[in-house]
Write a structure and sequence with these properties.
The protein is mostly helical. It folds into 2 domains: about 30 residues; about 200 residues, no CATH class. The protein contains 10 helices and 2 strands, in the order ααβαααβααααα. It has a two-stranded parallel sheet with strand order 1-2. The protein is elongated.
Amino acid sequence: MVKVSVTAARRELGRRQSVATGGRLLGGDTVRALNASPNPYVAPAAGPPSAVQPPPGPVLRCGPRVLAWSLVFGAAYGVVAGVATNVQFTYGLSRFGAIEYIPRVIGLSAARGWGPWGAALVPALTTVVALHRAGKRSAGTPVLDRLFPLFVGAAVPVLYPIVVVTGCCASLLVWCADHGSTARWFVTALTDGVLAVDVVHGVMASAIEALVLAAGVRLAGALLLSRRWWLLAKVFVMWAVLDGATYGIGYLGRWVV
């Protein structure tokens, strides 16, 4: 009944249009044209199914955890660097009878050398490992928290004095055990060899490296979370960025401080 009513309505509509146009369009042609048009009483066919979008990943809020682990690893790095520096210069300067200069060299190296470098390297490596593991474990694509780069950058100036103090203390213990000298003499010689300009250089280097590290994590967050890159490749990229920043700071330090 419905099909008959629709066909009759189309024929009547075609006849009226043919009369209205002065016979220029025959009724049969109008009916055939209407029959070729889509039926307004039939629902259109559904299109192809759209591609399934992956579920959104979680928001990573591991900034405080990265900061805490950086403090622990930074202290360990300071101990290793202090002992290695003491052994290195003890072996090198003892042949020339210049053992009394070892505390000064250690203090200068800590303030301007491996102190700022370690303070930036430890948070960088901790961040790379943490983001790499998060990207591997997440079902979707994780998103970094906006405060995450701030935590990573803040770890550098906080870690700088920790690295320097732990390194000098470890070197002091090795010095007293090796040479049998007093701790007071070691500390006095170390503080006499480190000037205020050396401390300023170390603080400025830590601040610049903190900005570089925070900006790098902000810009390369998707790369660090990617599953396509190996962990060693990510570590190499981060190390190259920090090494370039350290080289630039050292070059500017010759003219500034």
